[in-house]
Specification:
The complex is a heterotetramer of chains A (199), B (412), C (283) and D (212).
Chain B (H helix, E strand, L loop, with lengths): L3 H28 L19 E7 L7 E7 L10 E7 L7 E7 L4 E5 L16 E8 L6 E2 L3 E4 L11 H22 L10 H16 L3 E6 L6 H20 L3 E5 L2 H17 L11 E3 L4 H15 L3 E7 L3 H11 L3 E6 L5 H7 L2 E4 L1 H11 L2 H29 L4 H6 L4
Parallel strand pairs in B: 9-10, 9-12, 10-11, 12-13, 13-14
Antiparallel strand pairs in B: 1-2, 2-5, 3-4, 3-6, 6-7, 6-8
Helix pairs in contact in B: 1-2, 2-10, 3-4, 4-5, 4-9, 6-7, 9-10
Chain C lengths: L2 H7 L2 H17 L12 H11 L6 E7 L5 H18 L2 E6 L4 H20 L9 E6 L3 H10 L1 H4 L26 E6 L3 H13 L3 E5 L1 H7 L7 E6 H11 L5 H37 L1
Parallel strand pairs in C: 1-2, 1-4, 2-3, 4-5, 5-6
Helix pairs in contact in C: 1-11, 2-11, 4-5, 4-10, 6-8, 10-11
Chain D lengths: L1 H22 L7 H36 L6 H9 L13 H9 L4 H19 L7 H19 L8 H51 L1
Helix pairs in contact in D: 1-2, 1-7, 6-7
The chains are: A mainly alpha (199), B alpha/beta (412), C alpha/beta (283), D mainly alpha (212).
């Protein structure tokens, strides 16, 4: 199964015909459909874990209730017979006023973590760490007005972005490309099959 | 063995050269048409008639597209405003306006829809007739003779992608060859990777401290190569964890990934002889909203205080949030991803990082499975060939053989 | 524990607190002080490109982002369009983002109103700018526009045939434009390079979000003649056209944030080097 | 009018409080963060469950089967086979959809080959190498950087001698690249934070306007 599907996926890339494009789209639809069916397993797992916490009265079990309430509010108002759809008032407002702000704030925590990571790791411990430090510092200082120094720093920053940054990215991308193709081939040939639960 | 590499290289170059000449010939044909230089009888008005010279299918596609070329006296272009292009299914059928072209361009690319039900549908392999009208907005226009029939056709093979195909075939042959030779028991040397060596130590540390191990598969789907590579590593890690009788926590982002991870961990425990210790509560689904997932995993970290964190798989912006939170609880962290943009953050914030392809290699390293190791050898050869091609190409271009660029170029 | 040890082992929460406070303050008092933004070559080259254009020349601006990246990309869109209107360069706009159309309408309306007021001449749709609309499958659209704009856009967004719009008269494809500026928040930037520049070789420059910018530096000088990255790039452009607004307002916060991080890195290293030296002496 | 303003203010206040609760994680784990975290996990899962069913399952499966495209029932059956995981005896059936799903990863073979190998090769060759100008010289350095960087990734060769030296140069280049990416990203992350501050400021003005 894996082999046939994989092989088709490889060959379709080279064939521009309509019939093949249709087949490809059809198979991609399969993955979407399987994904949605599987989602039920995910929801089940979420229920199980949280229900377990509540019934065991384990530490912080009260918070498990909040998770379940959030989940059921979304499911009920989203699927509500008659009124249930993506534009349902509760569903929409929970999205805009709960999901969006918390996710955006989680994302913005990065501003702090990037600072603490830099503070901790950008130390001149070894040649490698020093190179990391120098490149990072030059790019960051580019932001700060430094009078006459600004121009050379800005040039240096551009150089780092254009030369070593490019070379580094390319080397990594090429390696990843070959590695990914090799891994995909192994999957196709059934050599890498840990995902089936056996070695 | 020694001659395999140069042999392949020569074959590769030959094949590429062949495909390029094929493409070049195709392109030549497009200019081959004789230019019709018959002078139009000079009239006061209307302007001269356009003369349709060709209607060609566009190569390397699914059809449904035609390019129409026509001739027009250069000196008359100033007198007209634009051209209109009409199409019909028979010479005396109903001509429908397809579009316009500015007065100084004598070609039109007719793109039809490939959907039968669309209004704009252009059927493949069907006779189509065209005429072009030179339009003068405030005066009489002149119409070309009907030309055709022309056909749009879908192609079986995309010739522009030949270099990709050659690369895939060669690389597949390498992989199969080295896996076969590994199967025969040939010993293959692999250099140690710090991140891999650390895995045992990290699991041992958690055991000593009596703390759990957290394994994050990332936010990819089960069809992402990085996630699949991570499954294999998860299997190895889970087996060791089961042997040491430490707790393993695997919070998942995707339901299919969760299902597969459950199978993987369950069978690893079985293999280690401790199936009774496994429970589906260890490998569970959190949520499939990116930063909600991060919030959940962060919560697990600060409450369950794992001693070792693995982040292996597909990661996006959450990489640094996870790694910094993990660092703040003092966990040993081993990370790896094939997402180029996230590697720097893992390198900075984690103790060990598998950079890019090292993630794929990790499964082979951990298992010491000769079949998997064989493919590492193939990857190395792939890299070597690439390097030779690159070095040769740069020299070739530097010494003026610019055509080499076109030999390796993929024309989508 | 002396001061240097403390510098090394500083609790990360001090970093967080300091950063939070200074950035918040810098943002609240953004109108109080301005930062001298240093302009970079990659932004200047876009500025010069438009500056050197003759009045009446045309450029294509593609707004390939949706409302979620509006905050980061809108300032550069505004600055570029104002510059074009000031120079009398005509702007053809298009969007390759599904949710972009409404946004483009809004931006063009706002900016043309602002420009009319600033430069004392009416900015007219069809004369100074036009919006040809949205089509899905960006790669195909980019290729199609390389052949003829009319392939995918026989009519503009408001259903006027392209040949009846004064700007589009005698404009067939990229060859008839001075260049293309694509302001994008996603994969369309790659497509502009691969399908646009590589195939049709028109002058191309990109405006991208801060995260994406490093990926496109490599193309500078070959595929791209200029690059505007995130707020910093937008602030530079605003400064060049002397229309400081949103992006420059965000700059004080950016500068103090960068300064804070640099400062903490210096503290960390100073502490580290001093303790290392001490270790060597005692041993 | 008054009412809709009150309602909007209440929702925005909720969002503002949740924003602050999430920020409190920077100090340490606390009940407010726990509340926000558990809420967002539940809401997120519910949101996507509804979205996927309405936007993916309905148009790709249900709507099509209704108009008679019965062949879309096949993936439906395959999908339903995932559910056999709940049964111990029939759990093996769920391997078919998984095997299919993983099989689609084959698409990566040509795509990665094209994007990471062919395209990178062409892109590197498109640079003009030479010693005529500084840019041309740097282009040669780029090529050397790519070559040595790749050497670093060789698995079957020990980093010794000349090869080891080259690989070392390769990792230096990699580190410079990582540092610059890291440094550049600071700007984007700070703008995210500024946007949250802007949101809080907006909320503050909203409250002020409401009561004044």
């Amino acid at each position: 199964m894996v082999f046939t599907v994989s092989l088709f996926m490889v060959i379709q890339y080279f064939v521009p015909l309509d019939s093949w494009a249709w087949m490809y789209q059809y198979l991609i639809d399969w993955t979407i459909i399987i994904g949605v069916f599987a989602l039920l397993l995910g929801i089940w797992s979420l229920l199980r874990v949280n229900w377990g916490k509540i019934s065991r009265r384990s530490e912080n079990w009260g918070y498990a209730v909040i998770t379940l309430v959030g989940l059921f509010v979304m499911l009920i108002f989203g699927f509500f017979p008659g009124g249930g759809n993506l534009n349902n008032y509760v569903y929409e407002h929970f999205f805009f006023y709960i999901l969006v702000p918390i996710q955006a704030t989680m994302f913005s925590l990065l501003a702090f973590f990037i600072a603490s990571a830099a503070f901790r790791a950008f130390r001149a411990r070894s040649v490698l760490a020093t190179l990391l430090l120098i490149a990072g510092l030059v790019i960051m200082i580019r932001f700060v007005p430094m009078g006459p120094l600004s121009e050379p720093i800005s040039d240096l920053a551009s150089w780092i972005l254009k030369v070593p940054n490019l070379a580094a990215k390319r080397a990594i991308i090429i390696g990843i490309g070959l590695g990914a193709v090799a891994t995909a081939l192994k999957i196709m040939l059934g050599i890498e099959r840990a995902y089936l639960g056996r070695d | 063995m020694k001659y395999i590499l140069p042999g392949f290289l020569v074959a590769l170059l030959l094949l590429m050269a062949l495909s390029v000449t094929a493409i070049a010939q195709e392109q030549d044909e497009t200019v081959g048409e004789d230019v019709d230089t018959l002078m139009q009888p000079i009239e006061q008005e209307p302007p001269p008639k356009p003369v349709i010279t060709a209607g060609e299918d566009r190569p390397n596609d699914n059809g449904h597209k035609l390019t129409i070329y026509w001739d027009y006296p250069q000196e008359a272009t100033g007198k007209i405003d634009y051209f209109e292009v009409y199409r019909a299914e028979s010479p005396d059928g109903e001509f429908k306006l397809r579009g316009t072209s500015p007065s100084n361009y004598f070609e039109y690319f007719d793109i039809g829809d490939s959907d039968e039900n669309a209004e704009d549908y252009l059927e493949n392999d069907k006779d189509l007739y065209y005429k072009v009208v030179a339009v003068v907005e405030d005066g009489p226009s002149s119409e070309s003779d009907v030309a055709g029939p022309y056909h749009a056709v879908g192609q079986w093979f995309h010739t522009g992608k030949v270099p990709v195909m050659i690369a895939v075939i060669i690389f597949a042959m390498f992989t199969i060859y080295f896996i076969q030779s590994a199967r025969k028991g040939k010993d293959l040397f692999v250099r140690p990777l710090a991140g891999i060596e650390a895995v045992d130590e990290a699991i041992g540390r958690a055991t000593e401290m009596g703390k759990p191990i957290l394994y994050v598969l990332g936010i990819g789907t089960a069809a992402d190569i990085a996630t699949i590579a991570s499954f294999t590593i998860l299997g190895r890690v889970a087996k060791k964890v089961a042997e040491y009788q430490t707790d393993l926590i695997v919070p998942c982002y995707d339901a299919i990934v969760m299902s597969v991870a459950q199978d993987v961990v369950k069978s690893a425990y079985l293999e280690a002889g401790r199936p009774d210790q496994y429970s589906d509560d260890q490998v569970f689904f959190v949520t499939n909203a990116q930063f909600a997932y991060v919030a959940g995993v962060n919560g697990i970290m600060v409450r369950d205080l794992p001693a070792t964190n693995f982040y292996l798989g597909y990661f996006a912006a959450e990489s640094l949030i996870l790694a910094e939170t993990g660092n703040s609880i003092g966990a040993i962290q081993i990370a790896g991803t094939d997402q180029v943009t996230q590697i720097p953050f893992f390198v900075v914030a984690c103790d060990y990082t598998l950079i890019g392809e090292e993630l794929y290699a990790a499964s082979a390293y951990l298992g010491r499975d000769p079949l998997l190791l064989g493919s590492l050898k193939a990857e190395d050869w792939g890299k070597a060939i690439f390097m030779v091609l690159l070095a040769f190409g740069v020299l070739a271009v530097a010494f003026g053989w610019e055509g080499f660029r076109e030999i390796v170029r993929v024309n989508l | 524990m002396n001061i240097f040890d403390r510098m090394v082992a500083l609790d990360r929460r001090w970093v967080f607190l300091f950063l939070f406070v200074v950035v918040a303050l810098a943002y609240f008092f953004r109108s109080q002080f301005s930062v001298g933004v240093v302009t970079t070559g990659e932004v200047e080259s876009i500025y010069n490109f438009i500056e050197n254009a003759q009045p009446g020349e045309k450029i294509l601006v593609s707004f390939d982002y949706d409302p979620s990246s509006l905050a980061e990309l809108h300032p550069m869109s505004r600055a570029i369009m104002l510059h074009c209107f000031r120079k009398g360069v005509k702007v053809v706009t298009v969007t390759l983002s599904q949710y972009g159309a409404g946004m483009v309408e809004e931006i063009t309306r706002e900016v043309s109103a602002e420009a009319s007021e600033l430069y004392g001449r009416e900015i007219v749709y069809g004369e100074d700018y036009c919006f040809i609309g949205y089509r899905p499958y960006p790669a195909f659209v980019i290729l199609g526009m390389g052949e003829n704009f009319r392939v995918f856009f026989p009519r503009d967004y408001y259903d006027t045939p392209l040949d009846e719009i004064p700007i589009m008269h005698r404009v067939r494809n990229y060859d008839d434009l001075k260049g293309v500026i694509a302001i994008t928040s996603g994969t369309t930037s790659d497509m502009w390079i691969i399908y646009g520049n590589a195939r049709y070789n028109m002058p191309l420059s990109l405006g991208v979000t801060g995260v994406m910018a490093t990926d496109y530096y490599p193309y500078l000088g070959n595929a791209l003649f200029g690059l505007i990255g995130g707020w910093k790039g937008a602030a530079e452009y605003e400064k060049l056209v002397k229309q400081e607004a949103d992006a420059n307002e965000g700059m004080p916060a950016q500068v103090v944030a960068h300064l804070t991080i640099v400062l903490f890195i210096v503290i960390g290293n100073l502490g580290y080097l001093m303790t290392e030296r001490k270790k060597k002496i005692t041993v | 009018m008054e009412d809709s303003m009150t309602v909007e203010l209440l929702w925005t206040t909720l969002a503002a409080l949740l924003t602050v609760a999430t920020f409190s994680f920077l100090y340490k784990d606390n009940p407010f963060y726990k509340f926000a975290e558990h809420l967002v996990v539940g809401v997120g899962a519910g949101y996507f469950a509804v979205l996927l069913v309405m936007n993916s399952l309905k148009p790709t499966l249900i709507d099509r089967v209704i108009i008679g495209q019965w062949w879309y029932l096949i993936p439906g059956i395959l999908g339903a086979m995932m559910w056999f995981r709940f049964s111990k005896k029939l759990a093996w059936l769920s391997r078919f959809p998984i095997a299919f799903y993983i099989g689609t990863s084959g698409v990566a073979i040509p795509l990665y080959m094209y994007n990471s190998v062919n395209r990178q090769l062409s892109a590197t060759l498109d640079l003009t190498p030479g010693f005529g100008s500084l840019t041309e010289f740097w282009n040669i350095i780029i090529v050397i950087g790519v070559l040595t960087g790749l050497m670093y990734f060789f698995f079957s060769k020990e980093h010794k001698g000349a090869f080891g030296g080259a690989a070392k140069f390769g990792i230096w280049i990699l580190m410079l690249g990582f540092g610059s990416s890291f440094g550049y990203t600071v700007m984007a992350r700070v703008s995210l934070f500024v946007q949250r501050i802007a949101f809080l400021e907006e909320w503050y003005f909203m409250v002020k306007n409401y009561f004044v």
